Amino acid sequence: MTRDPRPVRSIETPVGTLAVGCRDGEPVVEWLTGGAPAPPFDADDPAQLRLADAIERAFAGDQSALDSIPTGRGTDFERRVWEACRTIPRGETRSYGWIAATIGAHRAAARAVGQALRRNPLPVVVPCHRVVAASGLGGYAGDRTGALAEIKRRLLRFESGSSQEPGQPDRPHGTATAF
Q1: Active-site residues: which are they?
Q2: In angstroms, rounded to a whole number, what is the distance separating the alpha carbons of residues 62 and 57?
Q3: Where are the beta strands (DSSP E) in 7-121?
Q4: Cα(151)–Cα(125) distance, rounded to whole angstroms?
Q5: Element (H, E) at 77
Q6: Of the candidates 54, 52, 45, 2, which has an alpha carbon nearest to the alpha carbon of residue 24?
Q7: How far apart are CA 138 and CA 96, in angstroms?
Q8: C-alpha dihedral over 148, 153, 159, 160, to 10 degrees?
Q9: N or C end of the chain, less CB within 10 A?
């Protein structure tokens, strides 16, 4: 993984390129797909540098590297969704309904959970790729079939150490499905 020396940090990961920066003093992570340029971010910020370092360590295998990074700004509901998402173990998945139940909402709130995950400013830190639809993979950052959905597949394969296609939420007791 290499880091770009510009204020926006571009990090090459095994699954794609991440842009790491800050907006209004808050850390932000975005996947760069299709040759897209890095988005505009604030000038260098110590939080941005810590976040980039933590992401690099996480992709290098340090599973606790992202634990101290806060979830970012959001509504109370969004933050509860993001925190629940962070409890999903690496290499496992859960459904949108599971997240809803975990935060004390009715399972019917699964769509609202999906919208909260779509607004996640810190993908990878808040591993929203580990949340899948009850009937399959579901979307990623609002993308169900394109480049971001493919990054979700790659992330799940990377974390599980498998080359097989992910797609179903884990069954009771949190056991991982065969990827």
Answers
A1: 128
A2: 5
A3: 9-13, 16-23, 26-32, 94-95
A4: 15
A5: helix 76-85
A6: 45
A7: 9
A8: 170
A9: N
Q: What are the tens digits of pLDDT across the range 34-64?
A: 888 777 777 667 778 888 899 999 999 998 9
Number of C-beta neighbours around residue 103 at 10 A: 18
Instruction: Measure Cα distances from 73 to 43, 78, 123 in Å.
Output: 19, 9, 13
Classify residue 115 as exposed, middle or buried by CB count within 10 Å of its CB (0-12, 13-18, 19+): middle
pLDDT tens digits, 129-140:
999 998 888 888
| Among the listed residues 169, 155, 165, the one whose alpha carbon sits nearest the alpha carbon of residue 59 | 155
> CA–CA separation, 96 vs 117, rounded Å?
9
- Could you tell me the two tokens for 40? 């505009």
Report whether 98 contacts 133 (CB < 8 A): no
Helix/strand/coil for 131 = strand
Domains belonging to the chain, first-starting first, are 9-59 (no CATH), 76-173 (1.10.10.10)
Q: Answer whether residue 78 shows pLDDT above 70.
A: yes
Sequence letter at residue 149? A
β-pair partners for 26? 23
Residue 83 and residue 73 in contact, taking contact as beta carbons nearer than 8 Å: no
